[in-house]
Amino acid sequence: MIKEKKCNGQGKANSFKGCGKNINVSFRKYGLCSSCYASFILNTDVGRLMLNKATLKAMKPRLDFEQAKLDKKNKNSLETLKMNVRNVCHQFIRLRDKGKACISCGQEWHSDFQAGHYYKAELFSTLKFNDLNIHGQCQGCNIRNEGNLSQYAVNLPKRIGEVNFESINLLADLDKQIDFKWDRTELIKIRNEYKQKIKYLKI
Questions:
Q1: What is the rounded CA–CA span in Å between residue 101 and residue 136?
Q2: 59, 111, 129, 138: least surrounded by Cβ within 10 Å?
Q3: CB-based contact 123:129 (threshold 8 Å)
Q4: pLDDT tens track for 129-186
Q5: Where are the beta strands (DSSP E) in the chain?
Q6: HEC string of 92-141?
Q7: Is the pTM higher than 0.85?
Q8: Percent of the chain beyond pLDDT 90?
Q9: Which DSSP helix (H) or strand (E) runs through 81?
Q10: Is the model's pLDDT at 61 over the cut of 90?
């Protein structure tokens, strides 16, 4: 035997008066027939709130996916920009130090000299693109001798002066005290500055 009950709001829809018709209880939602339930959802504050919550719940996996996708894109974009800045910065260093001996061992300049950091780029983010911290260095010192830092420390003050040497030492101390993260605006600014420096050197 089919159980029937009158269409009348129950639970969250208890304030909503249905059409009063007898309907199969298995087809009732919140005590309402399908037509009255739709009216309750669309035309009452409680119903609209329920609909909004259900919509947000249904959309959440898609929104999470889109956000993850955007985060990945932004991260990749930032990493690409950092690589661009690195390339322009190192191009400037090689142009600026053309003809100068290796900052560490004093080997005569060669066209395959690299841009070697005194304070390592991977450890001191704020000095990563600081041209006082980067100088022409032979591959032997930069790669095989891990920067040859003991000789780098001896020769760097002679190259940039004691005041500038103290300045980058202070900046290195500060670097360890802050949680630094690059942003696009700053990276673009640095890239443009190095492009201008390169342009000036080529005149």
A1: 8
A2: 111
A3: no
A4: 999 999 999 999 999 999 999 999 999 999 999 999 999 999 999 999 999 999 999 9
A5: 4-6, 22-24, 114-117, 134-137
A6: HHHHHCCCCCCCCCCCCCCCCCEEEECCCCCCCHHHCCCCCCEEEECHHH
A7: no
A8: 67
A9: helix 45-96
A10: no
